[in-house]
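Why Transcriptional regulator? Reviewers of the renewal asked for a concrete example.
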Amino acid sequence: MATLNRPGDGDGHLCGIDTAMEVIGGKWKVLILWALHEGPERRFGELRRMVPGITEKVLASHLREMEADGIVRRVSYDEVPPRVEYGLTKAGVRLNDALEPLAAWGREVQERRGPEGAP
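Here is what the prediction returned.
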């Protein structure tokens, strides 16, 4: 999913963070990555339950985008009824590893805020 009309390199990105944010941007993609990291293969319904609040349409769209970006693989089994599973590619695992320090920072912020969410 290319971003158009942006300054920077020929592809419109200013730096590596800019490119990474294009891949993981939005409310749901990092949560989908987390859910896929929790187990080797996940079915669509499992992912939907693991990411409360996401709609089927948004989940399907994000999975397609993440597959196109090379961080999610989709495996379709020739069975009746049809079975499709999703997992992380090596690039997806590396991306999750890169996001771990951000998750650790978030946990520290949660602990400082306490149960009421106070600053």
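Residues 22-107 form a domain with the Arc Repressor Mutant, subunit A fold (CATH 1.10.10.10). This is the kind of structural detail the renewal will allow us to pursue systematically.
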